[in-house]
Structures are given as structure tokens and as C-alpha cells.
Amino acid sequence: DAKTTQPTSMDCAEGRAANLPCNHSTISGNEYVYWYRQIHSQGPQYIIHGLKNNETNEMASLIITEDRKSSTLILPHATLRDTAVYYCIVSLPPGTASKLTFGTGTRLQVTL
Amino acid sequence: DGGITQSPKYLFRKEGQNVTLSCEQNLNHDAMYWYRQDPGQGLRLIYYSQIVNDFQKGDIAEGYSVSREKKESFPLTVTSAQKNPTAFYLCASRGQIYGYTFGSGTRLTVV
User: Fold this and answer.
1) Closest Cα in chain A to B97
2) Does A14 score more than 90 pLDDT?
3) What gap in Å lies between CA A34 and CA A46, rounded to an integer?
4) Each residue of A21-80: pLDDT tens digit?
5) B61 touches A at CB < 8 Å
6) Chain A residues with CB inside 8 Å of B98's CB?
7) Minimal CB count within 10 Å: which of A61, A107, B59, B63?
8) Do A95 and B96 touch (CB under 8 A)?
9) How far is B92 from chain A (nearest CA, A)?
10) Could you tell me which chain B residue has the CA closest to the CA of A103?
11) Which of B35, B88, B98 sits opposite A46 (nearest CB)?
């Protein structure tokens, strides 16, 4: 699995959009970008994933650059409950059994 | 509801004792994983299993053992050979659509 690079921490005001970047310059053609988040002392929660097209669901949007070497997770209207560690992971397609490598992620602090 | 159940939530172990952490899933997923998380750190892979009766070592397998006798179950044993077992342990399974589903974790403390 390709490695990813994320900022250690970010702050965001409540109600504003939170934009979390991720670099994955060694991504392979068949690898997806996944985002998970972990609220303190809980298991990570799936947010969104994509291959090359931008994706949106009820939680967030995922923007992947055309060369697929980086992506951005967007939480459109951050709330205090979005305070968590966000992990960007590159891995084989859903349903493919392989290792999932977690880095240290980005600690997002949403403030009033 | 389908999901992953880890038990117990908190576990205390005396030094020199083996202890087994339970992980059960009813998602019909083939692949299951065990991760360890230390304070302020990311997740590190201990063992994973892609199919019943088969498993592979992850990045930090020393001092741990697993079994996969049933599709639904993937217990992790922390042996006395693990020198620093105090940590938060997470079990996960991998599905066809969303990728990984995680349990709520077991916090192990050596006393």
C-alpha cells in the first residue's frame, strides 16, 4: 500500500468548512483513497473513499487531483462533534483483502 | 444490526499472564485484522486473516498470537512474551463496499 502524508493538526471554526489535505504521490493505478476518523477512545469510523472522481456523501466530500497524487477531505460545515483524528489511507479496492496502513493522521480541532 | 463486537472493553492483566481479546463479526466479511494503538499514535497492524484457517503477521506480531477457526471470530492472545502490552486494541473486518469496519476496542492495562 502507498504511504500518505498529512499535517499533524488543524483548527477550524464551527460552521466553517474544514479542508483536510493528504499527499499520496506513490499511489498505484488501482489503489483507492480512503478517509476514516477516530474520536477519542473509539474505533475509527469510515467517512468516504474514491478512485479518481470526486465523491460526496452525507458526511463529506472527497476531491482527488487529476494526477491522483493528492486529495482533500472537505467537511462542509464543521461542528464540535467533528473534532477527531482524520486518517487518509491508500489501499486496494473495496473487497480486496490487504493490509491497511494507518499513519498518525490529522488532529482536527473544531472551535466555537 | 451488523457489526463487530470486541470484548471486554477494559482488561487488566498481571505481568507474566497471557490474556485473550475477543473479536466477533456478523458482517460475513472474509478478512479480519488486529491493530494496536498507543497514546497519541496511529494504528499498527498486529495480525490479519484473509480467510478461515489462515493468517499473516503484521508489522508488530512478536508477543501475540491469533487463530481463525470460524469466519465470525478472530481472537487475539497477548502472551507474556509481549514486553509492553498496555495499549488500545482494535479489531476490524473488511467488506465489499466500504472497506474496513472497526470494533469499539479493548483497552488492556498491565498491573
Assistant:
1) A94
2) yes
3) 8
4) 999 999 999 899 999 999 988 999 999 999 998 999 999 999 999 999 999 999 999 999
5) no
6) 46, 49, 94
7) B59
8) yes
9) 9
10) B42
11) B98
Task: Give A13's strand partners.
Answer: A111
Cβ–Cβ below 8 Å for B33 and A100: yes
**Chain A residues with CB inside 8 Å of B50's CB?**
97
With cell 472497526, the residue in question is B102
CA distances from B79 to A41, B62, B66, B74, B97 (A): 23, 9, 11, 16, 35
Give the count of Cβ contacts less than 8 A between chain A and B: 67
pLDDT tens per residue across span B26-78: 999 989 999 999 988 889 999 999 899 999 999 999 999 999 999 999 999 99
